[in-house]
Amino acid sequence: MRLPSSLAALLLLPLLAFADEFDASPKNARIATVSAWPLSAATPTPLAEVSYNPRSSAGGSYAPIATGDGKVEELVRVGVSEDKGWSIVAPELVGRKDGVKVTLRVDRAGDVWGVEITEDKDAVGAPKVEVFRSEPGAVPALNKPIVLNPDGKVPVPEVEKTFLQKYWWVILAGMVLLVGGGGGSE
Amino acid sequence: MRLLSRLWLPCLILNVVSVLAIFKDDAYHTDWHIPLIGPSIAASTFFHRPNAESRASLIYTLTTRSILAAINPKDGELVWRQPLAESNGTGIACGGNGIIVSATGSAVASFDAANGRLFWENQFSSKIVDLGVTATNAVVVLFEDGAVRLLKEQTGDVAWEWNFVDSTDVPISLHVAESTVTVALSHISKLHLTTLSLATGREVGSPLSVAGHPDIPSTHRALHGDDVLSWTERSGSILKFMPLAPTPAPAFVDIPQDVIETTVVALKDRIAVHYKTGANSWVDIFTVDAGTAVKHYSLQPKAGAHSAISLSTSGDVTYLVWTSTDETLLYDTNRPEILETYPHPQGQSVNATLAISEVVARLDGSWAMRSFVSSWALGFVGDTHLIRNGEIAWTRPESLSSIVASTWVELLDPTTEGIVEDLNVETHTSIGAAYIHRVKRHLNELAEYGPDWVKALPQRIYNAFLSVENTESERTGKWKDFFGFRKFAVVVTAEGGLAAIDVGKNGEVVWKASLVSPPVKFAGISGIYEVRKGTVAIVAADGEYIEYDAFEGNELLRAELGAPALTSALVDTPSETKAVVVILDNGKSVVLPPSPDLGPVYLSIKESSRLVKGLRVTGLSHHPETTWTFVPPASEEITSVVSRPVHDPVASIGRVLGDRSVIYKYLNQHLLVITTINPTLSTASVYILDAVSGAVLHSATHSGVDTSQPIRVGVSENWVVYSYFGDDDVVSTPGGAAKGYHLVVSELYESEFANDRGSLGQAANVSSLTGAGKPYVLSQSYIFPSPIEAFAVSSTKQGITAREILILLPGTAGIYTLPKRIIDPRRPVGREPDNAEKEEGLFRYQPVIEIDPRSIITHERKVLGLKKMETTPAELESTSIVFAYGLDLFGARLAPSMTFDMLGKGFGKIQLVGTVVALAIGAAVVAPMVRRKQINSRWSAM
């Protein structure tokens, strides 16, 4: 009974690894609709469809949804849906193509829980899309545990002898031969 | 030479050690501690002898803050105190032979009455209703589920257990006699009295029944021993009581409608009933004769809403002590005539709410009387006093144990206060005119103060030499001392009291006032701020804005805001004044004082455990706009929202590295730190936000977190510290984190690289609304050997002095100061620092932070129950002032980089002057000799 299950695991392992890779491929990209919500407006209006890959920070694309001229004079909230977080940006960044970066905050499940639009001079032609995930927190860098040998003592590592320590006698013999060897007849 | 170097080394080490601590002679002088216990519970406060041999008794009390304490009646000092399990302000304490037994919640503990050492403690699953101590120090406990257990005197283990079966019975009380214990249970319209044998726990005889329908919970206070059973019926309109006798016959009295409180006190064969209405109070005395209580007489009502009675027996006389607001009356319970009247001293009235007394008849026919009284005042509940023959011997400020908020008040500078107008003239005219004005002013001052100053000079020099405290530093009242060590902390108590505490003068209370008037209960506080020089403003949670004079304690202004306050903040207005912004429950906002020129102000507010909101308020509009919302990812709950301190000056915008390059700090005044927990995954996340735009600048998720333990956060400058409990066997985290308290530090920089500002480039100004890149965050985590109750950061005037993190340790009851440079995330891990890093002051990373006892600023004192620490700068750059509150009060000075701008007390002024004088004399004597010798040598050379 134990054998088949481990066999199954062995068979599954490459598959799982494959699934992981498959996930990261552009095919598995997801799409989120980013909306803009000017401070005085009653409801948000869709701004763009952003495709992103929840597993990699770059590689998304931005497709604007045309709704009027989209120009506003006041601060604009950006987000994905009303029950999720919104952040505000200056109006001149909304709907711009150059010099703008769209950051999607993505949770563990790959869903977007917040959007930010910021200035980015490197973006030309279309807004850059970036995925922002929570980093794993810092953990204490602990010392390695000491493993005792069967006698319950700290094992003393064997220091390897240096070349000289090992072969001094060969060199010595060589020297003796060199010194002791008679010179050629003159 | 080698010997010399051997001698030098220990000296050098000693030197380093002394540099770490404050001046030794400053300990216990510049810091102060007021140990408090909280308001006493009437039924658990008593005089008791610590042991059978002792002649003097101590005052034992259990408080609503669940602290059991012994107070010395002589001076009011605490002999000992023990924090017990929290139990919502209830609890029972009893005295035995050399022991004190307490019950809070469902735990019973026994302590040595003399020194407070714990003998044993036992935790049960049901709550405790009543408790009694037998003659042999065994403890009988009545539980909420009806069980009665006898706990052994040595170990607290259960000796026997008695369970009644009927679930309709409600346990009322327990009465311990010599060899039996009687349990009173309420059963529909009857009271059952079951007597159990103390030795076996079996029922003795058949249970007695008395007709009665007690109110549960009881609406009166029973402060009697075990010989009497008392209860109220018909929602407190009838008071019944009866001595426990073989044939019980309850006596009863009708309670008049306007009576708000009745208390039954019994001692020996006397029962006293105390009635209180809003306007007056009176006492009925009953005597117990052959098992029935008979009314003896009534005492004339006394005017005044507050009074308390107590009984005391001496010889074969039982005395009644009746403490009213301005006098204490002594009666013999046999006669209705007053034996002695002790008027309280003028201006020291005591609104007694509970009293316990000891009366001794002297040989000359007079009496020695002392009462321990707990008092009530508007906003200040539970101060305790000892009244000895009418004199108030001492007072303990227990009402200050419930401080909930505090703000610092800067005192006035006597040297500039008088010439404020002159200085204003100088800043507002042209340079030339200002210069002439200043010279004129100085000449005037020279003429006015000069002669006095010269006259006082010899005295000042004399004082300075004898190390007498500088006279200037002894300024009192609203005038600040020379170094600015004195500051007022204006505090608010949970009951609505307002008080000013002089933190530089050992926590002296300068004035007290009340924010509420009688029928209204204090709704809590939204914020307290110093809005102008010498003025504090309080925003009450029910929507009231109140201004007080911080030096005198006079009310200056009271305004209704129209709706409960949700949050409030102090903001700077363009006209260089300060204004309080209040967000109201009805969706409106108020700016006080009205400042129409106030530009947009960004506030944040925690709405629920799933939502933090950003709001924008301007001086003109009364409707705050929701700018951003923070909703954490699914199944995460927000636990805390922390922002940078208001006063947080940064002296240097970058950090110079060992190779003379600079990394720039990410400095954002609007840094907001939000922590969340995810109980299902056992993770904790930290989000660093920009509070204007709501953008997440950084976030980190820790796995293997015990989410039932709190996460504490401290923020300052460009860094964040937080702590959580990491565990290796929490649910759904295989592997988990290293078990223990983790202390994480994160520092924010503009860029990863030196001499680079990342996406900010050369920008002089950056707007949160266009967002300019995310900071580069460096983090490091440490194991901290203690739980952490709160963080605070030392605060100095310019921010030049290194910062210290104050950590409140609840376990060892102390405050630990951790220099920020110790937890520097740039410390090299797993290798020794290279030369450049050494030059920066970095040293090798060690995963565990050891608590150095020399950095505990509370020294050997145990500071109990502290909740919050407030810091403020002194006038000297080196020094920060600390004030901590919660239960105890604690104040201290901090000098994180040592007091580099002040001479220590041990500085040898005489030695210095002596050396200079000796050198001058020496030079004067030697100079002619040398000159003569030189001339002589030239002549002789000729």
Automatic annotation (TrEMBL), chain A:
<protein>
    <recommendedName>
        <fullName>ER membrane protein complex subunit 10</fullName>
    </recommendedName>
</protein>
<dbReference type="Pfam" id="PF21203">
    <property type="entry name" value="ECM10"/>
</dbReference>
<feature type="signal peptide">
    <location>
        <begin position="1"/>
        <end position="19"/>
    </location>
</feature>
<keyword id="KW-0732">Signal</keyword>
Automatic annotation (TrEMBL), chain B:
<dbReference type="GO" id="GO:0072546">
    <property type="term" value="C:EMC complex"/>
</dbReference>
<feature type="domain" description="ER membrane protein complex subunit 1 C-terminal">
    <location>
        <begin position="716"/>
        <end position="939"/>
    </location>
</feature>
<feature type="signal peptide">
    <location>
        <begin position="1"/>
        <end position="21"/>
    </location>
</feature>
<feature type="transmembrane region" description="Helical">
    <location>
        <begin position="910"/>
        <end position="930"/>
    </location>
</feature>
<keyword id="KW-0325">Glycoprotein</keyword>
<dbReference type="Pfam" id="PF25293">
    <property type="entry name" value="Beta-prop_EMC1_N"/>
</dbReference>
<comment type="similarity">
    <text>Belongs to the EMC1 family.</text>
</comment>
<keyword id="KW-1133">Transmembrane helix</keyword>
<dbReference type="GO" id="GO:0034975">
    <property type="term" value="P:protein folding in endoplasmic reticulum"/>
</dbReference>
<keyword id="KW-0472">Membrane</keyword>
<dbReference type="InterPro" id="IPR026895">
    <property type="entry name" value="EMC1"/>
</dbReference>
<dbReference type="Pfam" id="PF13360">
    <property type="entry name" value="PQQ_2"/>
</dbReference>
<feature type="domain" description="EMC1 first beta-propeller">
    <location>
        <begin position="21"/>
        <end position="398"/>
    </location>
</feature>
<keyword id="KW-0732">Signal</keyword>
<dbReference type="InterPro" id="IPR002372">
    <property type="entry name" value="PQQ_rpt_dom"/>
</dbReference>
<dbReference type="InterPro" id="IPR015943">
    <property type="entry name" value="WD40/YVTN_repeat-like_dom_sf"/>
</dbReference>
<keyword id="KW-0812">Transmembrane</keyword>
<dbReference type="Pfam" id="PF07774">
    <property type="entry name" value="EMC1_C"/>
</dbReference>
<feature type="domain" description="Pyrrolo-quinoline quinone repeat">
    <location>
        <begin position="495"/>
        <end position="584"/>
    </location>
</feature>
<dbReference type="InterPro" id="IPR011047">
    <property type="entry name" value="Quinoprotein_ADH-like_sf"/>
</dbReference>
<dbReference type="InterPro" id="IPR058545">
    <property type="entry name" value="Beta-prop_EMC1_1st"/>
</dbReference>
<comment type="subunit">
    <text>Component of the ER membrane protein complex (EMC).</text>
</comment>
